[in-house]
Amino acid sequence: MIRRAVAIIVFTFACAACGGGDDGGSPPPTDSASGTEIVIAFEGGVPARDIWRQDVALGDLVSVEVSGDRDEDIHIHGYDLYITPDEGAATLEFNALIPGRFEIELEQSGRLILEITVS
How many domains does the chain contain in total? Predict the structure, then answer.
């Protein structure tokens, strides 16, 4: 666990140090205009949409917006982030700094909602 956290911190600093050019590196967490927005709606406790895939550029700010009724945590694998039901309508933002394909699912039932591919 500590080794993983250290690897993420080292990777984050390495990405920041390599960010040449005039783009200023990754956008700050409040700048969602240049990132990826994912909207997950629920109806009757289940996702209103079939499973889908979403491409995300490495370094993008990802905004996951959840609305509707649900009784399970939403888990973003790989980043180990959760959105809990008691938050109701909620938005979670994170920087996509880990490349790969990751599932976003209802945690307790394991029901897949979507996959994100960070590259």
Answer: 1
